[in-house]
Protein: Transcriptional regulator, LysR family
Organism: Nannocystis exedens
Amino acid sequence: MGARKSAAVQAISATMQGSEEGRWDDVRVFLAAHRLRNLGAAARRLGVDISTVSRRLTAFEATVGARLFDRGRHGLTPTRAAEAVLTAAEAMELAHARLGREASAVEAAPEGVVRISAPPGLADMFVVPALVLLRQRFPGIVVELETSVRVVDLTRGEADLALRSVRPTSAELVLRKVMHARSLAMTSPALARSLGVLHDWSAAPWLGFDHDLASSPAAQWIARHVARASVVLRTSHYASLLAGAAAGMGVVLLPAPYARARELVEVRHDPTLAASAASWPVDDLWLVGHRSQRDLPRVAAVWQVLTETLGVVREARARG
């Protein structure tokens, strides 16, 4: 195994020294496949089709001179050869990200591509409107917006900026709190009138969260206080939850700024429910970037616009 590991590391080292972008793509595909253990998931992560992932993996296996994955009904199982090259592949990933940051450091004006990662509902309701202002101020900036509940790795260059509900702890990251909001039980004005004053949370139809957000504080509150039969929709997409609430389908438990954006109203409840209502989650939102990129003109410009516009959302709710 020692000889095979040495040969594998030498092969990936040769790949790192190659000038063709395709060689880096092979390594990038290998890392996605290793982390996700599924061709389809790796393809979605990379924004390519499955055939491209399969072709790149085959090419990388030819470079390494060994089979890297056993392909089965339940996905990909890394071989010993895959584990042997993993450390070198991750080192190449970090080097590639560092090279990109250092090359970008020479830019003089706010122009070029900035990649932002944000949860779907937040992106739809607040980030996209902010990009209108960004376009007016900095027409040379192009934004690539990834809307996903997945937490991207900024240290590996998966995005330039991200909006997160949990405060990161890495020393490589810089961050700023851009929103602090309490969640409310909200619905359409018509359904709120129909429900009247609730004496039991389960007396209302609820729009809840599926497995992707099952561990979120709002999902846990609903699980504790609302009968399962009263949850008439489950989804991880805030836009769907808000659309359902606005149409009068049910009640949602979401941060207060969403209410203003969709003209929802808070559901009235009896004083006997005050204690459980007092435990509605309070959410923070953090704008996060890599320390080495924060002062690049294009990244700084997007940072400035997002902090301005999200701050306005927060302050408007505080006054409302």
Summary: The chain has two domains: 2-104, 110-320. The domain at 2-104 is CATH 1.10.10.10 (Arc Repressor Mutant, subunit A). The chain has a mean pLDDT of 85.
